[in-house]
Amino acid sequence: MFITFEGLDFCGKTTQANLLEARLRGHPLPGQDAVRPVRFLREPGGTRISERLREILLDRRNLELSETTELMLFAASRAQLVTEVIRPALRAGETVICDRYADSTTVYQGYGRGLDLQAIGHINRLVTDGLVPDITIVVDVDLDEIERRRREAGLASDRMESSGRAFFERVRNGYLELSHKEPDRVVRVNGMESISAVEAAIWQVLQKHSTKSIERISRGAP
Ligand code: TYD
User: Fold this and answer.
1) Please, how many CA atoms are within 13 Å of residue 190, restricted to the half-sphere of its CB?
2) Which long-range contacts (CB under 8 A, 24 or more apart) does 31-34 make?
């Protein structure tokens, strides 16, 4: 089972991904009969090479990084992660939780930066070797709340976080569009609620997803 978390910076997805990881160490996933090993990953990163690409991508000094170079480096980081870690882990029967994956490229570089969405679709398929998550949770928080949390954290912004408000509006809309286009895979949860309410909503999404998969299998559908 391959689960990904998506959302704007400061939406709380990393907190939620960590909570799910902790829960799955003690409880089987809905629809599974036993606890399985869990692999937690974050993008960009997760391999020695991907972590080096991450440094280039997030370094505030790299102002001259072109939009296309940015796209290619995120893609390269992911290609390495899929081949070196995600595929082997899934083959070994592990549950993989990834904090960001190909949808981040679709919405940040496509909807956000305005690069060609069709080209990004091709690149995503190439670098993931067609590996699509079973379920993607989008933790949705509005821009005012994101800005409030960012101020409260008082951290210096990385290169990506220095993009303006209009950019993040487009990114948020991109996520919402994906959830409409692929409702069986991409599910929005309301990130404006408390941490425990969001956690419960995510568990419900996983339960529903498992019920739907069982129904599909018993109907003989792929
Ligand atoms: P990170 O510090 O990991 O942020 P977060 O905790 O919000 O995931 O930085 C990742 C940044 O890179 C984040 O701003 C989103 C951006 N990003 C893309 O623009 N495209 C991508 O394909 C990925 C994976 C991330």
Assistant:
1) 4
2) 31/210, 31/211, 31/213, 31/214, 32/1, 32/210
Quick check: 97 and 17 in contact, CB under 8 A?
yes
Give the distance (Å) from ligand 1 centre to CA of residue 22. 22
Domain boundaries, the chain: 2-218
Protein residue whose Cα sits closest to atom 19 of ligand 1: 108
**Atom 14 (ligand 1): residue with closest C-alpha?**
160
End-to-end CA distance of the chain: 16
Q: Provide the whole-model pTM.
A: 0.95
pLDDT tens-digit map of 29-41: 998 999 999 999 9
Assign domain 2-218 to a CATH class. Answer: alpha beta
